[in-house]
Amino acid sequence: MLSNRVLNRTLLARQHLLERSSLPVPEMCDHLVGLQAQDSTPPFVGLWSRIADFDPATVSTGLEDRSLVRITLMRGTIHLVTPPDALRIAPHVQPELEKIPFRKGFNYGAMVGLDPEEVRARGERVLGDQPMSAADMRAQAAELWPDRDAGAVVQTWLYQLPVLQTPPRGKWKDNSRPVWSRVEPWLGAPLDPTYPLAELIFRYLRAFGPASTMDMQTWSKLTGMKKAVEQLGDRLRTYTDERGRTLYDVADGELADAELPAPVRLLGWYDNAILSHQDRSRIVADGPVPLRAFATAVSPVLLDGYLSGFYKIFPEKGVARLRITPTRKWSAAESRAVEAESHALLAFLEADKQPRVEILEVDADLRP
Prior knowledge:
This protein has 15 helices and 13 strands. It is of the alpha+beta class and about 375 residues long.
């Protein structure tokens, strides 16, 4: 039986959040099976929190030379991954993405009545082999279906066609509007539909395990977890958690000492470490992440390994304010540790501005 605290420290160790790593960025992306990158800044914060002496230029260079890509994968969200993962994970994700646009709830039924295959075929011709902005795609969609919402048509294409975001979006300090490309022309290689789901789950466990089949499904938004576990056979071992649920792990996976110290970590908005389990009690001690936190785009503060507050940065003329709202009472020593890490993050993100760190009162509405 594994205690919650062992699960906490093991997750932090495998996420490289107990001690910063020397792994190069592509290897870190491969180990984590991508970093959440729905917005431009979070993957930089995630890498800064995990890699010693992280240089953000390595991400910009990787996007330019196509050794890194931004693509919709797990949970239907943008991830920063290496090209091999883009090519082998997308075929698992695409069937689920393609179901979304033709449901009645999608854009108030904007696509109901259209033939999905015809929409896809026209989208492939419109996008072709060259990157295209959403605005240019909307213009084409308006000509093809003048009686439909052109924006909904474009969203449909972005679900139907395996696409990725091309630079400059995602480069350091660049939040340009997305320009989209089909995956295969951009990477000069075909998608790989032969990559086993079981291998993907094995890699998930290396970075997030031990975990239940429901955790695996929450992370991937895919089905077939039990079959994948069966296929992995003796490559896995099992544990139980404090509630008696079965947890799976790679057979050679190391468990972390429950008494290991966990330094303060400031994560990016929607960081994978927070969102990749159905039962998040191993990192969110008192319940689910409050929806209000994500609605206001605030980012997690980990204190003693657990979600203990949220922060947001407010860049102003000559000043960068990092405002923190604890979700529980902090000791004076904890406050000092959070303040020190906050100044380090501001030095990374806003080096040209005067740093200001503000720790507010506990907000009961943000308490998990």
